Amino acid sequence: MHYKALGFSILTAASITAAINAMTTSADALTFTETSDVGQSLTNAVDTSSIGVVGNNPIENLTTIRGTLVGTADLFKIVVTTGFFTASTRYEDVGIDETVIDTQLFLFDANGKGIVANDDFDFLTTRRSRIKAQLAAGTYYLGITKFNYDPRDRFDNSIFSDAFSGLVPVNPQAGALDNWRGTVFNQPGKTEQEVDTSRTYEIALGIQPVPTPALIPGLVTLFLAVKRKHQTTPKDSDF
Fold this sequence. Notes:
Residues 1-29 form the signal peptide. This is PTPA-CTERM sorting domain-containing protein. The chain is of the alpha+beta class. It folds into 2 domains: 1-24 and 213-239, no CATH class; 27-208, Jelly Rolls (Sandwich). It has 3 helices and 13 strands. The longest helix is centred in the N-terminal third of the chain and has 22 residues, at 2-23.
């Protein structure tokens, strides 16, 4: 019986975890598609909350943003639920070398202060971008640009330091987003015309729920208690 008890406890823990995941998963995956060139400032960023919320929303779950880039930034106002926020770019242009659209992603809080950025999540194999951050529920701004077009504050301070790969932290001396500046560099083997050509992009969005602190110790305690019972039960027990 102690084997059944142990198995039941593990099954129960797994069932609880599955239930939590089910409660934090939305049934509808929605897409925001840029129909005209979106703004790049806090005052004219496109508000995507009319389409849906990123994360735990059982009715309207925004999972994708689609748009087009030339040499400027696109800035989106998003609403997220609590959890680990992720955003990553992928390309809609079929058969096009992805280095033609060397993206960058930037995340800002509701006041335009920088949170985290990324140029290439794997510089050796891709020029796509990916950011992640643990966020409280609320309003944020997500910006996308081609490489080297970067956000600045009103004093022309760079909001993020230059780094080709990895999560780039905010410059602690920088203020809120005010403007963007930089040059869309040519890529090796590409003509200026190829680089300047508009390219469509897609940003995949998601929220991973943060495990409830009170639940994890309880499950561990339950497992250890059953394990101790299993170890102390006589082998010739009738149970």
